């Protein structure tokens, strides 16, 4: 991954408390006390911070130099290269909105799988549906968005085994479609609009997800494990 240019969007998204609580809930469901956890593409530490505070053994992989320095100053263990990370040493790995930034997503996923202990699991959370590809995707360097079947095929070809795959944020699909055609082309997030969405629309979206999670959503996520685990 090259130098990340969407830090301002990350800082706005850090204020989306309901959305971030949902993401943390996906991670926490996979965790047990004493687990060693790798956060791939940690960014500014939005999720690694709370998990470290809860006592999990966190390691951050962050190739962006500015983000890595910021994480180091905040006391995180940071790795800038995957070659600096011991193989087969993590109980759980998560990558949140990372894989879409990598041209060779299969190669990256194969590397990540090798970092898992036998039986270890991984959470992959990515943007869904190329129909929603917008100026925001272009601004932050996305190569693609994914459908359910794309993610299943990718995990299988990378040597993993999908355990669970779901779409998330069904109302976000409609909001993202509106954003695509109504935004000013800058790819920026409006902080006020985001807060309104997070406080009022996203909770409704989570309720709707229980009915339509197999059909569509702004994002799609998978839980997978090593086939040799």
Q: What is the domain total for the residues?
A: 1
Q: How many individual β-strands?
A: 7
Number of helices: 9
Rg (CA only): 17 Å
Low-confidence stretches: none
Mean pLDDT: 92
* Tertiary shape: globular
In terms of structural class, how would the helical and strand content be classed?
alpha/beta
Q: What is the H/E order?
A: HHEHEHEEHEHHEHHE
Bin the helical content: 40-55%
Spatial ordering of strands, largest sheet: 3-2-1-4-5-7-6
Which fold does the CATH topology refer to? Answer: Rossmann fold
Report the CATH superfamily.
Vaccinia Virus protein VP39
The level-1 CATH class = Alpha Beta
CATH architecture: 3-Layer(aba) Sandwich
Q: What percent strand?
A: 15-25%
Compact summary:
The chain has 229 residues and is an alpha/beta fold. The chain has helices at residues 7-13, 17-28, 48-53, 65-73, 105-114, 135-140, 148-157, 170-182, 191-212, and strands at 36-40, 57-61, 78-79, 90-96, 116-127, 160-168, 219-226. Helix 5 links the parallel strand 4 and strand 5 (116-127).
Write up this protein.
The protein has a single domain (7-226), classed as Rossmann fold. A 7-stranded mixed sheet has the order 3-2-1-4-5-7-6. The longest helix is centred in the C-terminal third of the chain and has 22 residues, at 191-212. It is globular, with a radius of gyration of 17 Å. The chain has 229 residues and is of the alpha/beta class. It has helices spanning 7-13, 17-28, 48-53, 65-73, 105-114, 135-140, 148-157, 170-182, 191-212; strands at 36-40, 57-61, 78-79, 90-96, 116-127, 160-168, 219-226. The relative contact order is 0.16.
């Amino acid at each position: 991954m090259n130098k990340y240019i969407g830090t301002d969007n990350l800082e706005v998204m850090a204020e989306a408390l309901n959305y971030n609580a949902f993401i943390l809930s996906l991670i926490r469901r996979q965790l047990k006390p004493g687990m060693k956890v790798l956060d791939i593409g940690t960014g500014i530490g939005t999720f690694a911070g709370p998990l470290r505070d809860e006592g999990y053994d966190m390691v951050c992989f962050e190739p962006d130099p500015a983000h890595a320095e910021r994480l180091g100053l905040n006391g995180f263990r940071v790795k800038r290269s995957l070659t600096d990370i011991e193989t087969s040493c993590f109980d759980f790995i998560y990558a949140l909105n990372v894989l879409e930034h990598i041209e060779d997503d299969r190669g990256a996923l194969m590397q990540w799988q090798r970092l898992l202990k036998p039986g270890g699991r991984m959470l992959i959370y990515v943007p869904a549906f190329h129909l929603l590809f917008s100026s925001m995707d272009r601004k932050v360097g996305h190569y693609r968005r994914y459908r359910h079947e794309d993610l299943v095929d990718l995990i299988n070809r990378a040597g993993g085994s999908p355990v669970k795959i779901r779409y998330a944020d069904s109302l976000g699909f409609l909001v993202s479609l509106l954003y695509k055609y109504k935004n000013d082309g800058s790819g920026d997030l409006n902080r006020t609009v985001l807060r309104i969405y997070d406080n009022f629309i996203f909770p409704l979206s989570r309720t709707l997800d229980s009915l339509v999670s197999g059909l569509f959503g702004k994002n799609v996520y998978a839980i997978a494990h090593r086939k040799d685990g």
